[in-house]
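Continuing from the previous page...

OK, I double-checked the sequence for L,D-transpeptidase against my notes and this is the correct one:
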Amino acid sequence: MTHHSLLLAGVAALALAACQPLATDAPAEAPADAPVAAPVEAPASGVSAETAALYAATRDNGFDVPAIPASLLTEDKARQSVDYWTDHPPGTIIVDPHARRLYLVQPGDRAIRYTVGVGAAGFGFTGQAHTPYQRDWPRWTPTDDMLARNPDHYGPSADGVEGGPSNPMGARALYIHNSVGDTFYRIHGTPDPASVGTASSAGCIRLFNQDIIHLAERTRSMARVVVLTEAQSGMGTTPPGG
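Thanks. Re-ran it with the corrected sequence; updated structure tokens here:
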């Protein structure tokens, strides 16, 4: 199968699934005067104060972003600069869904590594694409398939849910397109930090809200996005010939 055919197949699969929230999410409109976030938890054992500070509560575009609970943090899970060997230029986003990692390529064989959560749609697309635009606190609307499959759960949100702390898309969303158009593949935040680092039944690629804000600030329009296959998982994490 040609590379172009693979991309077409990915689009077809995702057009049916799209980025779906976890079934346990309860989308609801979030007012701009959302409650003040809870105080930052003390660092968990083995997690430095510097790491805990990366995931402290913050305020963004009028919304409170809660701190990530200390129980969900480890040094390995936190975003960090790592060695990464690739021919893709700096600014490229490389998603390794099978390893639950996302890399933002930097100069000098380095990358910023983020931990991600992956849903079924997150495994449905591989290959190269680009992100023509992103949205802050994006609006979310359930797909026709979701409404037909679970009308009781998704019916109240059929007209869409405004962005906010309870929205399944979180604080930012990067929209992924290729030569065919919208792939329906999204890289986005989440109101469910426990899902980060796991494989769930629904959704695309989810990051902690603090991490998707960090990534979005460093992602230019039309940035290249590469999604690895299972056979390619781990690519770039060892030096050439290693």
